[in-house]
């Protein structure tokens, strides 16, 4: 059982919009300036915040999601393993919370940032918005820390507050809440990150991101108590986990993975799980490349294909290449944006129909609101590429688009609710639908996927 001493902190908040990502990027920028080796992690299923982490550190950022990985002991152990593996040899790990600290499934705290902090033994710093509040801020801090006896909340950072206001109220906030202040960030309107329908815009879309990070780093250097934060991080207990008992794969298969502006939503450790079963990941671009690379399987992840609908439609040679490969029996997993791309058509808001990959008979389109949002459990109604009939896997949905062919090979059960609906187009070696999955939480699915790729390679080599 590996054990590592990993100083670590979770940055959490009472609600979304408090500035967690801004504070985390500031901390990572300060660590970079100090040449301090850091690892970054994100609580929950979000893809976009880790992109910001990666742009600051120039290293991958990893998701720790106790629903997708599993809320049982093996799932908690997997979360500790991901944290420990990537944090080992690092001087500190920074974990970014999701939504409100205690917000989990339904009305409970299951799979929340709080539950993750408990599972990993991570001290918590609470980010609070300092605008329009004085002593009441202490009540918020005290209430958050005392809401659960094992809250692990030990300090706070006040965001968007004037320096004079912070200096005036700091002692009152500390005295009344019993928590230590670790500094503040002033209101910096020119350093905000824009949003769209799936949350923040991706880091690669912000042309002046490096300038924003520089300004945040300059502000944080003057206003954050870095030595106190490092001291708090070092109070984290040693981290232990079990390594899975896996035999080395006999051979490798070439798995083409879509990675460009339109398709960019992947969990890094999910990809590592595919590698552990023998996948060599071959990146390609449905936007810019003319055809698939030489490969034995295809993975089309999520993203924003609707923003590049015209360009995807114009690249007819790539559409034909994908269509032909799938019709020949190539295993294909398509999630959300990748699922959308496989449709015959994309319907624009003006009604225009753009031809897409032509694998799934139907059309996809953007709607006026959020269609499905949250965790689901998928149960296979028939044997599929990833799941045998009757078996289940955990997944996450978050999309504003709709489809005339959402599929019915699985039933999706919404976590914390009685709602259910048909999902997944599965025929032959195709598994396509809106749900996102994390292979670290369902290694048997990864084994089936790569096994099918291996079988396809044998067939095409005959």
From TrEMBL:
InterPro entries: CbiA/CobB_synth, Class_I_gatase-like, CobQ/CobB/MinD/ParA_Nub-bd_dom, GATase_3, P-loop_NTPase. It holds the Pfam family CbiA. Pathway: Cofactor biosynthesis; adenosylcobalamin biosynthesis; cob(II)yrinate a,c-diamide from sirohydrochlorin (anaerobic route): step 10/10. Its EC number is 6.3.5.11. It comes from the Bacteria. CDD domains: GATase1_CobB. PROSITE patterns: GATASE_COBBQ. Its cofactor is Mg(2+). The active site is at 336 (nucleophile). Residues 9-190 form the CobQ/CobB/MinD/ParA nucleotide binding domain. It is an enzyme of class 6 (ligase). Keywords: ATP-binding, Cobalamin biosynthesis, Glutamine amidotransferase, Ligase, Magnesium, Nucleotide-binding. Residues 255-440 form the CobB/CobQ-like glutamine amidotransferase domain. It catalyses: cob(II)yrinate + 2 L-glutamine + 2 ATP + 2 H2O = cob(II)yrinate a,c diamide + 2 L-glutamate + 2 ADP + 2 phosphate + 2 H(+). Belongs to the CobB/CbiA family. The a and c carboxylates of cobyrinate are activated for nucleophilic attack via formation of a phosphorylated intermediate by ATP. CbiA catalyzes first the amidation of the c-carboxylate, and then that of the a-carboxylate. Catalyzes the ATP-dependent amidation of the two carboxylate groups at positions a and c of cobyrinate, using either L-glutamine or ammonia as the nitrogen source. This is Cobyrinate a,c-diamide synthase. The lineage of its organism: Bacteria, Bacillati, Bacillota, Negativicutes, Veillonellales.
């Amino acid at each position: 059982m590996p054990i590592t001493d990993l100083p670590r902190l979770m940055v959490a908040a009472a609600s979304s919009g408090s500035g967690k990502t801004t504070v985390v990027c500031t901390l990572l920028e300060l660590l970079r300036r100090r040449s301090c080796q850091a690892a970054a992690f994100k609580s929950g299923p979000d893809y976009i915040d880790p992109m910001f982490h990666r742009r600051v550190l120039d290293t991958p950022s990893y998701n720790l999601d106790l629903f997708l990985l599993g809320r049982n002991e093996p799932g908690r152990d997997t979360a500790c393993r991901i944290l420990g593996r990537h944090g080992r040899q690092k001087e500190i790990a920074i974990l970014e919370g999701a939504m409100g600290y205690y917000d989990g499934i339904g009305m409970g705290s299951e799979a929340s940032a709080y539950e993750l902090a408990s599972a990993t033994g991570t001290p918590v710093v609470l980010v609070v918005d300092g605008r329009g509040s004085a002593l009441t801020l202490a009540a918020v801090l005290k209430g958050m820390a005392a809401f659960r006896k094992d809250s692990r909340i030990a300090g706070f950072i006040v965001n968007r507050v004037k320096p004079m206001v912070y200096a005036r109220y700091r002692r009152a906030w500390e005295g009344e809440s019993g928590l230590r202040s670790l500094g503040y960030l002033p209101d910096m309107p020119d350093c905000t990150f824009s949003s769209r329908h799936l949350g923040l815009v991706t880091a690669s879309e912000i042309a002046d991101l490096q300038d924003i990070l520089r300004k945040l780093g300059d502000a944080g250097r003057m206003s954050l108590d870095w030595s106190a934060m490092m001291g708090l991080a070092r109070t984290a207990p040693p981290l232990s986990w079990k390594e899975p008992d896996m035999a080395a794969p006999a051979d490798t298969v070439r798995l083409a993975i879509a990675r460009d502006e339109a398709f960019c939503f992947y969990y890094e450790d999910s990809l590592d799980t595919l590698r552990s079963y023998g996948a060599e990941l071959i990146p390609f671009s449905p936007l810019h490349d003319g055809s698939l690379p030489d490969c034995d399987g295809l993975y089309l992840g999520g993203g924003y294909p609707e923003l590049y609908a015209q360009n995807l439609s114009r690249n007819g040679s790539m559409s034909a290449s994908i269509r032909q490969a799938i019709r020949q029996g190539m295993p294909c997993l398509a999630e959300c944006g990748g699922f959308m791309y496989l449709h015959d058509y994309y319907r624009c808001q003006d009604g225009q129909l753009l031809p897409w990959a032509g694998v799934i008979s139907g059309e996809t389109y953007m709607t006026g609101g959020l269609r499905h949002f949250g965790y689901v459990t998928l149960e296979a109604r028939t044997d599929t590429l990833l799941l045998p009939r009757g078996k289940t896997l955990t997944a996450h949905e978050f999309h504003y688009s709709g489809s005339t062919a959402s599929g019915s090979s699985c039933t999706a059960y919404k976590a914390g609710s009685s709602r259910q609906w048909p999902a997944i187009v599965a025929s032959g070696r195709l598994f396509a639908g809106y749900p996102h999955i994390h292979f670290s939480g369902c290694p048997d699915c990864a084994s089936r996927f790569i096994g099918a790729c291996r079988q396809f390679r044998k067939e095409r080599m005959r």
